[in-house]
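About this split. The held-out portion is used to measure sequence recovery: a designer receives only the structure tokens and must propose an amino acid at every position. Recovery is the fraction of positions where the proposal matches the reference. Here is one held-out target exactly as it appears in the evaluation file.
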């Protein structure tokens, strides 16, 4: 399975530690435009996941909706609490393994530090590897079988600027 992991785009500032306000933070106009440019770069790379899963937080959902629109995948977009805050990597792996028919490629849209921890778990078996997803950044992993441990190879990790230039 190909796994594409994407961090949400640039969002509004936080609301002084208010968790309710944090869930509702939207992409800024610049953030939305940059995600659109990134999505065009993904189209040039021929990224076409069978399923697109997103965190239910507004900024991630908006990011996923823009990507789905540009790639023509709006019918493949679903929310999952397992990408929310707090995330649940083990439950996310179980959810991915239950998808039928088994997808060849899945895109996950979420948040830091969960995406880097999840990536590290899949490529190194521990969440302690030093990875960083910039806002709008994207990683591609290859996993013959998916489990909550070392099971995948990191194919690439691209910063948003490189993806925007492609678009």
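Reference sequence for scoring:
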């Amino acid at each position: 399975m190909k796994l594409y992991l994407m961090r949400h785009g640039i969002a509004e500032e936080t609301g002084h530690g208010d968790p309710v306000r944090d869930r509702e933070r939207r992409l800024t106009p610049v953030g939305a435009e940059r995600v659109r440019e990134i999505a065009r770069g993904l189209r040039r790379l021929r990224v076409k996941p069978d399923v697109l899963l997103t965190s239910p937080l507004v900024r991630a959902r908006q990011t996923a909706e823009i990507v789905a629109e540009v790639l023509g995948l709006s019918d493949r977009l679903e929310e999952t609490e397992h990408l929310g805050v707090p995330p649940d990597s083990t439950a996310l792996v179980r959810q991915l393994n239950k998808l039928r028919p088994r997808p060849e490629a899945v895109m996950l849209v979420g948040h830091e530090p969960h995406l880097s921890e999840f990536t590290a778990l899949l490529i190194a078996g521990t969440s302690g590897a030093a990875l960083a997803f910039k806002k709008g950044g994207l990683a591609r992993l290859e996993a013959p079988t998916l489990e909550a441990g070392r099971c995948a190879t990191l194919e690439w990790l691209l910063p948003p600027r490189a993806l925007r230039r492609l678009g």
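Annotator remark: The chain has six helices and six strands.
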